[in-house]
Amino acid sequence: MTDEYQVAVVGGGPAGLTTALYTTRLGHDTVVINRGGGRAAMMLDTHNVIGVTEDVSGNEFLQTAVEQIQGYGAEYVRDTVDTIERADDGRFSVSGGDTDVTVDHVVLATGFNDVRPDPPLPRTGRGLHWCLHCDAYMFVDQPVFVMGTGDSAATVAMIMLNFTDEVDLLTRGDDPEWSEDTQKQLDAHPVDVVHEDVESVEKGEDGWLEAFVFADGTRREYRGGFPMYGSDYNSDLADQLDLDLNDDGTVAVDDHGHTSVEGVSAVGDLTPGHNQIPVAMGEGAKAGIGIHDRLRKFPRSLDEIESEGEVSEADVPGLSERMREHAREHNAEAPAPAASDDD
């Protein structure tokens, strides 16, 4: 590592790594600082990512991405960022643990944590699932539960009727908090609302959930289900930078991930939208291009030409020598294009 970069990405999920991929390939010295963990790392299987088969785990998916960005010249550091401050020169000081770097642009890709219900619970990925759009396909014609007491839980329970005719909504002994209109919807759908709390979990030899036993002694079989207790956004750094937040706690961004503070972008689950790997990757791509538009040296504007003069041959290319060296090495190792019939 050096102590100066053009871009620092805080967070190493699909959105952050894709942002780093783009900024690095577009010629900007980039460091990714990742504390580890995250929702993608929890995945036992990868769903809904075209070109990636289901037998690829989240950790394998992320490790391949890390190796890709390193191959193009990005730095990758396992560390926790505690503080981000704007320096007198307009750049940012990013520090925490053993890391202390100065950068031109910061990308927050710190995501959120799903609020977990109280145990007993099945294992994540073996009966406890966090993404309806990723995993509903797994439960076609299977008995499914949804946990929660709010409108979102009730809505997800009704959505699951598109995939199976056996859906239970478990309140775990808490009073329902969904609206009267939602109750009217529930009354018109074949969803069984179970108010007793879960007493124990039964699992098969493969570790998958088989059934819940409830406090009243009843036993109900399930293949799996979805807890719906909300999200805890990792927005401490956003608060330090005084970024504008939405009512739900997400960071407000434009179409290219720019926040309310110049030089700061946010991507992935920390921002509004569907919490999906392909969506996160798309956000990262757009953010990377947006950062390039801000940081690239050329073309100079008319005002810059007037103040700095014309661009000379000595001024180009607009990459650091470190990035030029990485690009030359990478391109030299790349296989030569196959000869065409016209050669």
From TrEMBL:
Residues 304-313 have a biased composition (Acidic residues). Residues 5-284 form the FAD/NAD(P)-binding domain. The keyword Hydrolase does not apply. GO terms for molecular function: oxidoreductase activity. The keyword Flavoprotein applies. Residues 302-343 are annotated as: Disordered. Keywords: Flavoprotein, Oxidoreductase. InterPro entries: FAD/NAD-bd_sf, FAD/NAD-binding_dom, Ferredoxin-NADP_redctase_2. Residues 333-343 have a biased composition (Low complexity). Residues 321-332 have a biased composition (Basic and acidic residues). This is Thioredoxin-disulfide reductase. It comes from Halomarina oriensis. The lineage of its organism: Archaea, Methanobacteriati, Methanobacteriota, Stenosarchaea group, Halobacteria.
